[in-house]
């Protein structure tokens, strides 16, 4: 049902928790299924040097937000903006068809977080 | 990794003695129970022995048992068979909002076909109120279908009371006893049911075989038309190995009833009490008084059920978030919603169901793994943090 990568992320829950020194944060919620996710990014000279997440939701939502924290590490903010639903799905090795919307939440929270510190 | 199976309401492991009873009927005694020759007569004898065993389990006559392909077919047959056979008298049926989809979808189909159906609500305990039933009864009511034990919460309806009312009003009464027959005493005369559904694979029998009890004299139309099998009530060559398996499973279950109530109940209680002690903000969903001895349904605040299910699965523990057939969709449990719980509580529900094969080590492992897993998921959960902060604020206010 869930790919090896998604299972690994759910088992390990890498980068979980909040981040005290975060420079960019956002909260996003999927009104349809009620999933909530928080993303914390720490950017240093426009490079993501740390990233954490907190998610309430189904396994797909958890895996997708964990994936985002891994994917954006060491990227410049412009590169982070190029992360899409498709690239997260690729990273995860796919999701069950009825769980595809979970990656939209992850993209949403990432875009919001990147914007959160704009003047 | 030692695997722990706590999803016995979805299905159970077959008892080796059941397999043993079935096995000659594949390669050796493979006859068609309708054939006149020796092969056929052996098969017939095996089928009738099984029929007796199933009849003994629920206190009816063997001729009142019809073998089917399982609980789903029995439910379909009972409801559609009565609807078709009694539409001359009326076109109204009564059921509950917490039935298995095998009943609910069948009722909905009947509505599309011009029948009217009343769905009785349940209270927080997951139980219907007799007053609601009384009020729902009409002149043209032809069938009341109320499940015995619920598959998600284990809540047991007061069928005796329903049966008395049905009898008094002259309405036929069907019950889906898939989750109770073979686990607690089920006697069709004591309960006052006219039709009763049971299934083999919930009591360590094979999948794809079940039975429908039809009280002698009850008129109905068959669902499956074909040969004159099962006294003309269900066409199709009998699934002899499956039926033999059901018979053996029923006989074993009947012998084990007292033990089930004692041993399985004590394991379930140890599991439930242990979890409630070790995990803060955990709550039982449904009645604890009128409940099956092998089921517990718990909500862990701030943790989504399926996420918890997968995390436990990755640690070798199999549980469920509701009915197995609907966990592939996004729909939260219709049973817990009908009980009036808010979405967040429904989403965070976990069903743990035991069987007579559950061993103490499984309970110990679950008690070991579940609290830390819930804790980990909660550390991750913004929802839990928000609710904990709220609880703390309220606590401070109470102290100031
Ligand atoms: C209450 C109830 N009714 C009916 C069924 C369907 O039985 P079967 O799987 O034999 O078709 C089930 C099985 O999940 C059940 O729990």
Topology readout:
The complex is a heterodimer of chains A (119) and B (400).
Chain A: H1 4-12, E1 24-29, E2 36-44, E3 47-56, H2 59-71, H3 77-80, H4 85-92, H5 101-115
Helix pairs in contact in A: 1-2, 2-4, 2-5, 4-5
Chain B: E1 4-5, H1 16-22, H2 24-27, H3 38-58, E2 65-68, H4 71-86, E3 92-96, H5 101-112, E4 116-120, H6 130-136, E5 141-145, H7 159-169, E6 172-176, H8 188-191, E7 195-199, E8 210-214, H9 229-232, H10 240-255, H11 257-278, E9 282-284, E10 295-300, H12 305-313, E11 317-318, H13 334-338, H14 343-347, E12 349-353, H15 360-379, H16 382-399
Parallel strand pairs in B: 1-11, 3-4, 3-5, 5-6, 6-7
Antiparallel strand pairs in B: 2-8, 7-8, 9-10, 10-12
Helix pairs in contact in B: 1-10, 3-10, 4-5, 11-15, 12-15
Pyridoxal-5'-phosphate binds at residues 70-72, 75, 100, 102, 147, 151, 176, 178-179, 199, 201, 210 of chain B.
Would you write up a description of this structure?
The complex is a heterodimer of chains A (119) and B (400). Chain A has helices spanning 4-12, 59-71, 77-80, 85-92, 101-115; strands spanning 24-29, 36-44, 47-56. Chain A is of the alpha+beta class and 119 residues long. Chain A has a single domain, classed as Sufe protein. Chain: A (Alpha-Beta Complex), CATH 3.90.1010. In chain A, strands 1-2-3 form a 3-stranded antiparallel beta sheet, with helices on one face. Chain B contains 16 helices and 12 strands. Chain B has helices at 16-22, 24-27, 38-58, 71-86, 101-112, 130-136, 159-169, 188-191, 229-232, 240-255, 257-278, 305-313, 334-338, 343-347, 360-379, 382-399, and strands at residues 4-5, 65-68, 92-96, 116-120, 141-145, 172-176, 195-199, 210-214, 282-284, 295-300, 317-318, 349-353. Chain A binds chain B through residues 2, 7, 10-11, 13, 16-17, 27, 33-38, 53-59, 61-62, 96, 98, and chain B through 302-304, 306-307, 309-311, 314, 328-330, 343-344, 347, 376, 379-385. The structure holds pyridoxal-5'-phosphate. Pyridoxal-5'-phosphate binds next to helix 4 of chain B.
